[in-house]
Amino acid sequence: MRSVVAVLCERATDRPPGLEDLESLGVVFRYCDAAGLAEAVRGARGLMLWDYFSTALRDVWPDAGSVEWIHVTAAGVDTLLFDELRDSDVVVTNAHGVFDRPIAEYVLGAVIAHAKDSRRGYEYQRRHEWRYRETRSVAGSRALVVGTGGIGREIARLLRAVGTEVRGVGRTARSGDPDFGEVVASSNLAGEVGWCDHLVLAVPLTEQTRGLVDSAVLAAMKPDAQLVNIARGPIVDNAALLAALEDGQLAGATLDVFDEEPLPADHPLWDAPNLTITAHMSGDVVGWREVLAAQFAENVRRWLADEPLLNVVDKKLGYVPGPVPPNASAGDASTADAAGPAGGRARAGRTGESGSEDSGRGGGGVGAGGIGVGWG
Q1: CB 3.0-4.6 Å disulfide test: which of 75, 178, 186, 279 passes with 371?
Q2: For every residue of the chain, which 3-state class applies, written as one string?
Q3: Could you confirm whether 127 is annotated as catalytic?
Q4: Is 302 noted as a catalytic residue in this protein?
């Protein structure tokens, strides 16, 4: 019996590298774009979202009755999850861990660029102006990292390595954290941001984090501070951010994510003062596609061998949970995305059916071994 896995690509010809090596293990890959997804998932047991921001699965959900496992090649799963999927037995895994270091390096670059006044430096160079000025030291500055999962922790470690004092923001306050030292409660974010020079967002987009950075939070920040968002656009009230930048209430911002992507050419953020915009690329370094494909291939091997899958997403929380952080309450076990992998077992879809190349939607299933950012 050959196990069928549908692979959703932005274009059917834009395929993940190296998956052909798995075909000798009895896996059949059906490559498709969004238009062909309904046909591709019929009778398939697995689905890989190579087009990781696609929302096409929701529209073809009735055709996906045999799917027992979905892998999304992104840390965040907010564009994938919908109520029917959350309530099903389908296991979801993500690309937890792949983007941690590249994103941390991006944030470090943003911190250095702000401290060294790089934005004005580029503008002076463009105008052929020689302007001497003093800049700030990165060592001794303060960063508040919202999100204590794998990405947030890697950011904290890298910033601490250059002498930046770092605190974390999570759902509950605690002390003695190995990477942040002190974690403050998100419920009092406006009361905490006045401490920092850099407010860094590294949380998943959930109902609790949507609009988290609003006008009150921005007004409470120091006027020489900056905001760095590598999480999701809707976490920030962009109208309030635009007003804060234009009024000089905030010294700068670095945004890699937006409410609407690509950011429309006529969007006012393009012309906002002291704002750096990048095209949702903070985690994308040379070779990242090969790493994503290799991570998925490892989970395919585990799936076929009836071993626990890596990086299983808690669909109710919207991210990969981890162990209880030090000095945290037991309730935090479900909200901490630690660096270690989470394991789970894939079930035979919503209907108990398991698709194969030979049997379509029938068959008994293999019983196979069954994001990222975190919010602890």
Answers
A1: 75
A2: CCEEEEEECCCCCCCCCCHHHHHHHCEEEEEECHHHHHHHHCCCCEEEECCCCCCHHHHCHHHCCCCCEEEECCCCCCCCCCHHHHCCCCEEECCCCCCHHHHHHHHHHHHHHHHCCHHHHHHHHHCCCCCCCCCCCCCCCEEEEECCCHHHHHHHHHHHHCCCEEEEEECCCEEEECCCEEEEEHHHHHHHHHHCCEEEECCCCCCCCCCCECHHHHHHCCCCCEEEECCCHHHECHHHHHHHHHCCCCCEEEECCCCCCCCCCCCHHHHCCCEEECCCCCCCCCCHHHHHHHHHHHHHHHHHCCCCEECECECCCCECCCCCCCCCCHHHHHCCCCCCCCEECCCCCCCCCCCECCCECCCCCCCCCCCCCCCC
A3: no
A4: no
